[in-house]
Design brief:
It is a single chain. The chain is α+β, with helices and mostly antiparallel strands. The protein has one domain: 3-Layer(aba) Sandwich (NADH Oxidase). It has helices spanning about 5-15, 30-40, 60-65, 75, 85-120, 135-140, 175; strands spanning about 50-55, 80-85, 125, 145-155. The protein has a four-stranded antiparallel β-sheet with strand order 1-2-4-3, sandwiched between helices. The longest helix has about 35 residues, at about 85-120.
Length: about 180
């Protein structure tokens, strides 16, 4: 029998989108561990079709905030991690489905690991997906074969907020879960 790790369940239940950060820097070892967690995400065929940018430079964070339709909290976070997919890497093994779906699923798994690792370190983060891919690519000088999938501003939360569970309505099981026995 597999024992549940209560800390993981707690992290899942405590995770929330944080959009207000203290200016305090994040220690390098902590950032390294967060990226290590991202790298442990599952990926189709263990292809690992991802690249990660750790942005601290204010002018680049400001460009990313503009690319994210002026979501200023992106620029205010001490760090922004941009996760990009490598569609060609997945396509080499899985064709169009790899390029159009698997690399996106794989990077999404890595983003979720980043979010949960941030909680484990007492940090706040927000998954930002509303942005101009072109503007993000230009701000970071990404090669044309990479596709920015998510931006994750990270920092110490300015205020203690409510975890997701209980703070917003959830669709009931009857509408979202199907059991086939």
């Amino acid at each position: 029998m597999i024992a549940l790790t209560k800390d993981l369940i707690d992290a899942i239940e405590q995770r929330r989108s944080v959009r207000s950060f203290k200016p305090d820097p994040i220690p390098e070892p902590t950032l390294g561990r967060i990226i290590d967690c991202a790298l442990l995400a599952p990926s189709a065929g263990n292809i690992q079709p991802w690249k990660f940018w750790i942005i601290k430079r204010p002018e680049v964070k400001a460009a990313l905030a503009r690319a994210a339709h002026d979501q200023e909290f992106v620029a205010e976070a001490p760090v922004v991690i941009v996760v990009a997919a490598e569609p060609r890497r997945s396509a080499a093994r899985y064709g169009n489905r790899g390029a159009e779906l698997y690399c996106i699923q794989d990077t999404a798994a890595a983003v979720e690991n980043i979010l949960l690792a941030a909680v484990a370190f007492g940090l706040g983060a927000c998954w930002v997906g509303a942005f101009s891919e072109r503007a993000v690519s230009q701000a970071l000088g990404l090669p044309g074969d990479l596709r920015p999938v998510a931006m994750v501003p990270i920092g110490y939360p300015r205020e203690k907020g409510k975890p997701v569970r209980g703070s917003r309505p959830q669709r009931p099981w009857e509408e979202t879960v199907v059991v086939i026995e």
